[in-house]
Design a protein that fits this description.
The chain is of the alpha/beta class and 457 residues long. The chain folds into 2 domains: 221 residues, Carbamate kinase (3-Layer(aba) Sandwich); 154 residues, 2-Layer Sandwich (VC0802-like), CATH 3.30.2130. It contains 14 helices and 18 strands. Strands 3-6-2-1-9-11-12-10 form an 8-stranded mixed sheet, with helices on both faces. The longest helix has 28 residues. The structure holds aspartic acid and magnesium ion (MG). Magnesium ion (MG) binds next to loops.
Length: 457
């Protein structure tokens, strides 16, 4: 069996849906197809919800336009004999959506669980439409993808979800292919509608692939695969034909938008390869992610960048005790589910620094002030400095530790290009070297690194 996931742009128009149909019809084996909402819909569902809550009556025509878009797509792609069936199933969802917007408008508030219900309508409808377009079975994700609370966030209850997926997909009455909505889920305790986070359809597909021991997980998107760098920043970037799970994880964590980072874990553990493919160019080979690659590791596979970063530096006698301070930092931040992107320890300079998403910075600073309150009183720590408007760049490769010249070479490349390196580290991950630069220099920095590492060969 194989699992295919089609993203929003793949199911966004009648033309791309025609490609989806061709791809699925050419498969010749049992498949589970996981789909996103129609392209751009989730953003629009959220924006319209905010409008309604803010008392902006434009939510009404916005909602009507979304309703019409679904009717148009049904008309364009679902064969006439199944159209009534499709409409019978999406009309109640469309009515529910309109009632939710009216409710939000009435109470002038947008509770989180209501927003989750509103955004769920996207995948609830797209999955029905795609199933009926293909004449395939439809499986309701809300009943089988279950979440639980973790630091206030909804995360997949993976064991329960795997059992439910297996139970549903091994049902003898089910015929393949099977279509289900990505992203959407429900709370294992309350049954309320939840989701796996923006971009979470990839993760749904990975959970299904892992539960079913699929042969491969195909992620169908609108790019040719992972590229050596973001092509909008570095036009010379090229497709990476193959890479390891760990490399793909690093590239995604550090900002490559190809797949939702949590996607990789479930398939990695089961050693199920992932292939990234382009729905608009199905003949392109894409990127193959597996562990076969580890036998022949590359020093550099790709570059990625996270903009809107902040660099937090702690100075004082305690900062020289890097093990103690880093453990306490990690633990304090983890309590609120915050993750660090780069840790630079400089024992000589008596400082400890880390990069974090600027949006998480105020919370991180508060947590650190609480955690180290006694040390600040005793002057064990003296300074907590924050610099914003930064970009964290990662140079990723399984064998990056053996990159000739190492981190000093990368630093030199950037400095020669006139970029000030604010911090750098060869210890954040086994397979990535990271450097923090001013956000205004992102393009210059990536172009210089790409030229040196990929073009001058
Ligand atoms: N529709 C959801 C989103 O836009 C999930 C996904 O597309 O993966 O975030
Ligand atoms: Mg996506």
């Amino acid at each position: 069996m194989i699992v295919l996931k089609f993203g929003g742009t793949s199911v966004g128009t009648a033309e791309s849906l025609a490609n989806v149909k061709k791809i699925v019809q050419g498969l010749g084996q049992d498949a589970v197809i996981v789909v996103s909402a129609l392209g751009g819909l989730t953003d629009r569902l959220i924006a319209t919800a905010r409008m309604a809550a803010a008392g902006d009556l434009n939510y009404i025509p916005e909602c009507e336009a979304m309703v019409q878009r679904h009717y148009d797509i049904v008309e364009a792609v679902v064969p006439e004999m199944r159209r009534e069936h499709t409409l019978e199933r999406i009309q109640p969802v469309l009515r529910e959506l309109r009632r939710l917007y009216d409710g939000v408008n009435l109470i002038a508030d947008l509770p989180e669980k209501t927003l989750a219900q509103i955004v769920s309508t996207g995948e609830r409808m797209s999955s029905v439409i795609v199933a009926d377009m293909l004449g395939a079975s439809h499986l309701d994700s809300l009943g089988i993808i279950r979440t639980e609370k973790w630091f206030g966030k909804d995360i997949a209850a993976t064991d329960l979800t795997s059992d439910l997926i297996r139970e549903a997909l091994r049902n003898a009455d089910l015929t393949y292919p099977v279509v289900m909505g990505g992203f959407i889920s429900s709370d294992r305790q309350t049954g309320e509608i939840t989701n796996l986070g923006r971009g979470g359809s990839d993760y749904t597909a990975a959970l299904v692939a892992a539960a079913m021991d699929a042969d491969v997980l195909q992620i169908w998107t609108d790019v040719d695969g992972f590229l050596t760098c973001d092509p909008r920043i570095v036009p010379q970037a090229r497709v990476i034909d193959s890479m390891s799970f760990v490399e793909s994880m690093d590239l995604c964590t550090f900002g490559a938008k190809v797949i939702y980072p949590p996607t990789i874990y479930p398939v990695f553990h089961k050693n199920i390869p992932i292939r990234i493919l382009n729905t608009h160019r199905p003949e392109a080979p894409g990127t193959f992610i597996s562990d076969a690659h580890c036998a022949n590791p590359r020093t550099v596979t790709g570059l990625s960048a996270l903009k809107d970063e902040a660099l937090v530096t702690l100075r004082g006698p305690l900062a020289t005790d890097s093990t103690a301070i880093s453990t306490r930092c990690f633990n304090a931040l983890a309590r609120k589910g915050l993750t660090l992107h780069m840790v630079a320890r400089s024992e000589a300079a008596g400082s400890f620094a880390f990069a974090i998403a600027a949006a998480d910075m105020p919370c991180a600073v508060k947590l650190l002030k609480e955690e180290f309150a006694p040390e600040f009183v005793d002057a064990e720590l003296e300074v907590l400095e924050v610099v914003t408007d930064l970009t964290t760049i990662a140079v990723v490769g399984d064998d990056v530790k053996n990159l000739p010249g190492g981190i000093s070479r990368l630093k030199e490349i950037l400095e020669t290009a006139g970029v000030t390196v604010r911090a750098y580290s060869d210890r954040t991950s086994e397979t990535a070297l990271s450097l923090v630069v001013p956000v205004a220099d992102t393009t210059r920095a990536l172009a210089a690194l790409h030229r040196d590492l990929f073009e001058d060969l």
